[in-house]
Amino acid sequence: MNRRTEVARFGSVRWAVVDDGRPIFAQIAEQIENSIIDGSLAEDAQVPSTNELAAFHRINPATAAKGINELVDEGILYKKRGIGMFVTPGARAKLLQRRREQFADRYLRPLLAEAHKLGLTSAELKDMIETSQENR
Amino acid sequence: MIVNVAGVSRRFGDALALDGVTFSLRENTIYGLLGRNGAGKTTLMQLLTGQQIPTAGTVEVLGQPPLENDAVLTQVCFIRENLRYPDWFKVKHALRAGAALFPHWDEAFAQSLVDDFALPRDRPVRKLSRGMLSAVGVILGLASRAPLTLFDEPYLGLDAVARQRFYDHLLADYAEHPRTVVLSTHLIDEVADLIEHVLVLDGGRLIVDEAADALRGQVVTVTGPAPAVSSVANGRVELHRMSLGSVVRATVRGVVDDRARAEAERLGAKVEPLSLQQLVVSLVGAGAADAKESSR
Known about the structure:
A: Arc Repressor Mutant, subunit A; B: Alpha-Beta Plaits; four-stranded antiparallel sheet; 29% strand
């Protein structure tokens, strides 16, 4: 009998747990959010179960459950009793809105700090952003 | 609560192996019992399984004292680093003993584990390699499904692949059959993500009894120019400080919130979390220093 939980079917999702000192449950929640934002978890799609997440990430099931429950509390996921967790319609728009609000804090502030350290002017910075975008 | 330990001390002659330890273990939780050699981890597990008598204090498992108490001891499985078997025992006899001893024993699971760890069923246990001997212990511990399962450094001689297999089986089986598991180990980073709650013993005293999630990020290292490092270190407990030229690295206890982190970064310092292993090392070091201080 094979007791290992099969989780490979959550194919396109980026699952590497990054160790940045935040609680693991928060990282699990954020990865599910990322999958919703990039569309690999569609609205009304079923999300991996607590045990599947635990086996895949090699973390305690209670930790995985905490990450899932956080998203349920925020209305990103909803529960179908006895079946599992699903993505709430409208969750993607809600997450996009929130991530955009966080964008300045999380990405612009460190970028500006480094630019300041290197003595880059706003104009130079703007040029660099435009060049990078053209090269994408 | 499946375990209640209150004010427990254990003295061996002049040595105080445990010093006024108080804690509880919840049902269906994986605990990490961490600390240096001689910190009292094995003594504590012996007390929980009725193999030692406390010098002071009380130990209750499933609401009763474990000493010579079959009602308790059939619900408890203790896998020690050096499990001894009768000389004539073969692997299959060890499994049969497990089946006879533990009421929740799962024979099909045990057999699948024997295959997975590639153990020869008919080989005498005394002729097994160190790693195979450890595998027998791991299989007994997992297949016992005991409501309280204690693993005291069960991995001796197990290679990295076999250890990962043990962790994976433990997680998968725990998910389907929750129970209380206590893992005592020195390979802290390997089990850091499996552990829900952390207990740290240092010199016989319990210095950490905290949820693993809450512990993460409570100790950080701050690296950078001295003023930037001080912006974080001031008002927090500094456990360790090193400098290299004008660069300072301090290990600091206390949660650094986003604002304090941003301020440190603006001043040119980097704030990084410690791994559970580094965290335990830093706390145990600090504990030893405190002990010296108070004995003066």
